[in-house]
Amino acid sequence: MGMLSSRLVGSPDEPAHFCPGCQQMHVLPWKRGDWTFDGDFELPTFTPSFLHTWTEGPERAPRRCHYVLTAGVLNFCADSTHALAGQPVPLPDLPPDLTWVSE
Hints:
By secondary structure, the protein is an all-beta fold. It is built from no helices and 9 strands. The protein has one domain. It has strands spanning 2-3, 9-11, 14-19, 24-27, 36-37, 46-56, 61-70, 73-76, 88-90. A hairpin with a 4-residue loop joins strand 6 and strand 7.
């Protein structure tokens, strides 16, 4: 486990990436579902879409990040709750200050 590329960290079965819309890491548990992965850790393609949901803050506001990752581009769906909803955004390099803890 560890750095898989300049854009992915974790394990090959559960890579994680930094999301520029949410400003946090998202884990892609592709082997636990019906996703496919092309094996390219630099410019990955996973299908179908990933949906991450959580609540945030004391008001427990619902948050949603929904995208298809194709050839290293995060294609954010319109139902995402951040400012990048509906936009294609290149998968960014991991932040230089990232601390990754693996179990």
